[in-house]
């Protein structure tokens, strides 16, 4: 209405005034059509500019909203994963601390009771012996006292060792518990009620599953297993990528780099298992004289192995792995490459594999062969795989197994040409050994797949 008034009233006023006074209409007075045309030319440009500005603001607002929603979803996912891992580790640490405290109290009570019984027996012997000869009594008393002192000294030393071990484990677990509690308190969860419900449920489950009287190695097996799984996952996500970067400086083909790292991992597990067997045999031989006729000999061996994992000679295993990789026929590489570049990676995998053998039951990697049928339960396909191919071209990372159960999935590359690569005979590759390989030995290595046991063919290779 205001627009009509502003456009129509001036024209009507000018026309009415001219008509009432008998004057002709001035041509300078703008007509209604001119006013309409001028307003029509002005308004569309303004409206178009306003509409474009509004569209631009709306699009930017939508993009910001989508980005904020994506960031929020990713943050919630990461927070939930961190919360779950922290809760599991915290529960395991709390349970182990409680069990170790109970064991410490029981050992202290046993030691006190033993001292009281020893004093009581010595007093009874002192008052019950015949009083025929004062010299005989003094000699018998001194011999009994010497024997009792010797037994007390041995028992006290054993108890002190056990107490020191328990106190050290309690200190380590307390530090780990405080760190996990700090991490949980720092992470802000959007829904505290579900967290408390899940925590109480997990605690009740842990109480139900807990055995009535497990020994110390079984108690610490849960925490050690969680720590080893975390180290194995970090090796896949960090150490493996660092090793790939080192090899890519000298090797351009990504497939060769991934094959080298996979073979290094498999060889590290194989060598670490052999070293663990030899270490356990040496422990049995050293503990046999002191544990003759006892039923808990295997438990003592397991406890000693768990407490002395730092005695493992990882550098010797690294050298064995590098020697095995040098004669592996599946790796083709230029002579300028030295596998000593992967020493840190191989040493970490050897230490992890050695510690995994001390678990009950032990953890091991799954056997994988090129050209085998892809198993979705054990492996996930790499990003560059053909997701419709049924056969494995080569493996990137092994799967971790506990008996027949998959604990952690591996990674494999599937391609359509995997069948033809498995049927086609292997070509001659360079050997990094000091002496050339004879044709007969090379053919036998090429036609036979490597087993997980020590290969007698490899031992017959000519070396100087």
UniProtKB/TrEMBL annotation:
It is found in: Cytoplasm; Mitochondrion matrix; Mitochondrion outer membrane. One of its GO terms (molecular function) is lipid binding. One of its GO terms (biological process) is mitochondrial protein catabolic process. InterPro entries: MIEAP, MIEAP_C. This is Mitochondria-eating protein. Its main location: cytoplasm. Belongs to the MIEAP family. Keywords: Coiled coil, Cytoplasm, Lipid-binding, Membrane, Mitochondrion, Mitochondrion outer membrane. It comes from Aotus nancymaae. It holds the Pfam family MIEAP. Residues 35-50, 111-158 have a biased composition (Basic and acidic residues). Residues 19-51, 103-158, 177-220 are annotated as: Disordered. PANTHER family: MITOCHONDRIA-EATING PROTEIN, MITOCHONDRIA-EATING PROTEIN-RELATED. GO terms for cellular component: mitochondrial matrix; mitochondrial outer membrane. Residues 224-414 form the Mitochondria-eating protein C-terminal domain.
